[in-house]
Backbone:
């Protein structure tokens, strides 16, 4: 039987380690509510090392809620370009407008959950760090730590059900004197020590409280059911119109579930061109890539094709009926528009 968790020792050792070893992250330097909110939105689906340069530029360009609220959506999305999951940027923009319309920002987690893009984890992070609310943040990192501390072998359907299961335990462990630092310490521990693979158990500050360490197999916790994935194969085409010095791009409609208003290279289906036509039109295969979005595993092939006069007329006719989703974009304007991050990298590497 596992020894009971010594909560007092755990809190003490965790906080002492964090205050001595925490990474010097930009949102921790001269912290503010705005910095905390922006960082939490960016980190919802993004690793710290990836988010850092985006955060620095964002704070420089939009230094507070007022500046963000006043910014046009096109500027907000452009600053977010490359981070993906653009609904986060739109929700952050809406949140800033909501906050600036209030006499003062809310302090309670329940009030924050009512704001765009804020779930239980984000509400707990914001209110504990900015207002000292004694509530635990429970994300994948925290689930992993708690599953290992308790050596709990429950098999969870998904990460959400695991977070719900461990939330009561997490709340009993919160250091009520320093809840913000406690939550950041848990995040830091999961990101740097109690990692998914090859955890650094030998230097873990709470090792004495960890039941999984005593099993000699901490990596088996937590236990999550295998995710179902769906394979997708997509062709993309770089249509270069030499007459206009422009390239054809597809822009997702404002109501699209993903990438609303964001440009991508078009697929043959976007212009009602059969994939077999690529061979007859002498399209050249230039590049390929694999990437993942939620449960989808996407394989993309990128072709280059300079349309002849009949195909240009066909494309122009399709543009007229596309309600703005297909557009010729001047090559000189490519840097100004918001292009999906994976396609921006392909364009810069193979077509610039």
Residues:
């Amino acid at each position: 039987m596992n020894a009971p968790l010594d909560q007092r020792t755990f809190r003490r050792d965790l906080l002492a380690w964090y205050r001595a070893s925490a990474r010097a992250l930009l949102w921790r330097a001269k912290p503010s509510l705005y910095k905390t909110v922006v960082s939490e939105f960016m980190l919802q689906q993004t690793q710290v090392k990836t988010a850092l340069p985006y955060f620095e530029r964002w704070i420089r360009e939009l230094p507070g809620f007022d500046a963000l609220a006043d910014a046009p959506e096109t500027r907000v999305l452009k600053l977010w370009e490359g981070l993906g999951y653009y609904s986060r940027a739109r929700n952050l923009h809406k949140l800033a407008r909501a906050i600036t319309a209030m006499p003062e920002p809310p302090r309670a987690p329940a009030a924050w959950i009512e704001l765009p893009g804020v779930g239980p984890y984000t509400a707990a992070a914001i209110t504990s760090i900015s207002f000292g609310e004694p509530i635990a943040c429970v994300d994948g990192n925290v689930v992993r730590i708690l599953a290992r501390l308790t050596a709990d072998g429950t098999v969870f359907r998904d990460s959400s059900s695991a977070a719900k299961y461990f939330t009561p335990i997490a709340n009993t462990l919160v250091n009520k004197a320093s809840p913000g630092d406690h939550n950041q310490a848990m995040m830091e521990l999961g990101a740097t020590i109690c990692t998914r693979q090859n955890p650094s158990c030998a230097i873990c500050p709470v090792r004495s409280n960890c039941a999984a360490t005593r099993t000699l197999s901490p990596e088996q916790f937590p236990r999550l059911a295998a995710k179902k994935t769906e394979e997708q194969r997509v062709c993309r085409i770089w249509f270069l119109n030499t007459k206009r010095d422009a390239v054809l791009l597809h822009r997702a409609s404002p109501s699209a579930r993903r990438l609303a208003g964001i440009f991508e290279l078009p697929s043959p289906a976007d212009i009602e061109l059969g994939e077999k036509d690529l061979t007859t039109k002498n399209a050249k295969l230039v590049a390929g890539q694999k990437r993942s979005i939620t449960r989808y595993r996407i394989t993309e092939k990128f072709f280059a094709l300079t349309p002849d006069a009949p195909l240009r007329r066909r494309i122009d006719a399709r543009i007229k009926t596309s309600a703005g989703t297909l557009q010729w974009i001047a090559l000189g304007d490519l840097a100004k528009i918001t292009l999906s991050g994976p396609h921006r990298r392909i364009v810069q590497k193979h077509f610039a």
